């Protein structure tokens, strides 16, 4: 794929990837921002306090830790050796709550994307395409190159 990152964006991503305490949520925020979208964080008035909310486009992005939300990947399938039953119950509870929240949000006419933590370890092949296709369905096409213009439009559009 073509290189869509600005130099600043790329070095930012790289520093995040290398960093030990990489915060998946920060990676996602940075990418969505680079794609030219404005968003609100953790809106408490919406089910599940979604991590990113794009009010202008009625879109919501959750960033889920693979272990806590039981992703079907190797990180999500980890079974803790101690208190296995306790963790299992807790994680199943999360999954059920996630489903209920997403159902409610869709009923309220929000589109929902769940971004998994493991995708943030594979930005170019997994995370970026997922974000792009989720955000591409808005009635305008956003290119990285148009970031400056798009951002201006976006900030006025939000008000
Ligand atoms: Zn995963």
Characterization of this structure:
With 159 residues, this protein is of the alpha+beta class. The protein has a single domain (7-151), classed as VSR Endonuclease (Endonuclease, Chain A, 3-Layer(aba) Sandwich), CATH 3.40.960.10. The chain is 46% helix and 11% strand. The protein is built from five helices and four strands, in the order ααβββαβαα. The protein has helices at 7-18, 24-34, 84-107, 123-136, 147-158, and strands at residues 40-41, 52-54, 59-64, 111-116. Strands 1-2-3-4 form a four-stranded mixed β-sheet, sandwiched between helices. β3, α3 and β4 form a beta-alpha-beta unit. The longest helix has 24 residues, at 84-107. Mean pLDDT is 80; it is low at 8-21 and 140-159. The structure holds zinc ion. Residues 66, 71, 73, 75-76, 116-118 line the site of zinc ion.
């Amino acid at each position: 794929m073509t290189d869509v990152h600005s130099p600043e964006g790329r070095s930012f991503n790289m520093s995040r990837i290398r960093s030990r305490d990489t915060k998946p949520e920060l990676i996602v925020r940075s990418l969505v921002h680079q794609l030219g979208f404005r968003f609100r964080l953790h809106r408490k008035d919406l089910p599940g306090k979604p991590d990113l909310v794009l009010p202008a486009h009625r879109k919501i992005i959750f960033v889920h830790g693979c272990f806590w939300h039981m992703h079907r990947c190797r990180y999500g399938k980890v079974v803790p050796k101690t208190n296995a039953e306790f963790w299992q119950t807790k994680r199943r509870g999360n999954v059920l709550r996630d489903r209920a929240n997403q159902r409610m949000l869709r009923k309220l006419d929000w589109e929902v994307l769940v971004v998994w933590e493991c995708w943030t370890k594979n930005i170019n092949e997994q995370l970026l395409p997922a974000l792009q296709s989720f955000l591409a369905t808005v009635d305008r096409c956003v290119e990285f190159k148009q970031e400056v213009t798009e951002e201006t439009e976006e900030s006025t559009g939000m008000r």
